[in-house]
Automatic annotation (TrEMBL):
Catalysed transformations (reactions): L-glutamyl-[protein] + S-adenosyl-L-methionine = [protein]-L-glutamate 5-O-methyl ester + S-adenosyl-L-homocysteine
UniProt cross-references to Pfam families, sorted A to Z: CheR, CheR_N
Annotated EC: 2.1.1.80
Residue stretches of biased makeup (Basic and acidic residues): 11-21
Protein purpose: Methylation of the membrane-bound methyl-accepting chemotaxis proteins (MCP) to form gamma-glutamyl methyl ester residues in MCP.
Keyword S-adenosyl-L-methionine: yes
Protein name: Chemotaxis protein methyltransferase
Length: 307
């Protein structure tokens, strides 16, 4: 690992629990409980209309539904773009954004996504996945992590696969996300060591390299693991998913929770189209799709089989 690794991390927090983000959100929360209150303490003028515009824009672009309790979050996240683009009010920034090409829209989406994730999060999915691989040791393995965030999920899938199939198997997982910054970080495969708490010594040794000197406190996924993951930018609400062959397993976890019910239904119908009959769909712990019984049947805790 070289000395530049520290600079791979822009001051974008790992997730919304990040301290600086939380500090800003707390300050904003005090201010927007009543948008007409405390205007003098607010860095930027903020109105309900600004919030409604942000809400509509992010729903149309990413399917993300911000409920009214998310005002403070919207203020603090989008305020970052105002600072970075030199705008002095939300009104002015949002007018400007409407005239922009894709690059600024991507930044707007990036600041409004929530990227919390962890290695082997919801471990029962990886046990079931390992069992599925043991039953299909010859492949093909068409596996998709469709809201991969900073990479912990697809690397966990690849680790589980290498443990079952051995390091020489040609197993690949496709990892995608709408947020271009998290996908770039996933591709780098560099993490803080404390982010790997809970991984066994055996997994740490087999799959990670420890940083030394200026990189101490950081780890990098080993090239053999890195090569088992392909990265892409895919928006789940777009029509142009790139699949030509049916998928066997999809991890679609902790993303649909941000969509409203009609959007969830549309995404589930599309997932149904790309997963082969009998294929598996893993979803997040708070995601229940009992209304989609015509498409998927529950086969275990937050695990569905495609009908
Ligand atoms: C909370 S993280 C979940 C990460 C991982 N799947 C897990 O369960 O640990 C949600 C991810 O969904 C992504 N996301 C949100 N809207 C999306 C969309 N329309 N298309 C693809 N990814 C989206 C976000 O960028 C974020 O990285």
């Amino acid at each position: 690992m070289n000395g530049a690794i520290g600079s791979l991390y822009p001051d974008r927090p790992d997730h919304p629990e990040d301290r600086s983000d939380t500090r800003r959100r707390r300050a904003a929360a005090r201010l927007v409980e009543d948008p007409d209150d405390g205007a003098e303490a607010r860095e930027f003028h903020w109105t309900r209309e600004d919030f409604e515009r942000i809400r509509t824009m992010i729903r149309e672009r990413a399917g993300i539904h911000l409920h009214s309790g998310k005002q403070a979050m919207a203020y603090s996240r989008v305020a970052r773009r105002l600072r970075e683009t030199g705008h002095t009010s939300f009104h002015e920034y949002l007018n400007w954004l409407e005239l922009q090409e894709d690059a600024e829209w991507q930044e707007f989406v990036n600041v409004l996504t929530t990227n919390l994730t962890a290695f082997f999060r919801e471990p029962h999915h990886f046990d079931l996945f390992a069992q599925w691989l043991s039953r299909h040791p010859q492949g093909p393995w068409n596996v998709w992590s469709c809201a991969a965030s900073t990479g912990e999920e697809p690397y966990s899938i690849a680790m589980a696969a290498q443990e079952v199939l051995g390091g020489h198997a040609s197993f690949k997982v496709l990892a995608s996300d709408i947020d271009s910054r998290v996908i770039a970080r996933a591709q780098e495969g560099v993490y803080r060591s404390d982010h790997l708490k809970g991984l066994s010594e055996e997994r740490l040794r087999r799959f990670f390299l420890r940083g030394t000197r200026t990189n101490s406190g950081l780890v990098r996924v080993r090239p053999e693991l890195r090569q088992a993951v392909e990265f892409m930018h895919i928006n789940l609400i777009d029509d142009d998913w790139p699949f030509k062959t049916p998928l066997d397993v999809v991890f679609c976890r902790n993303v649909m929770i941000y969509f409203d019910a009609p959007t969830q239904r549309r995404v589930l119908e599309r997932l149904h189209r790309v997963i082969r009959p009998g294929g598996l769909l893993f979803v997040g712990h708070a995601e229940h799709f009992s209304d989609a019984r015509d498409l998927f049947v529950l086969r275990g805790k937050t695990t569905y089989e495609r009908l």
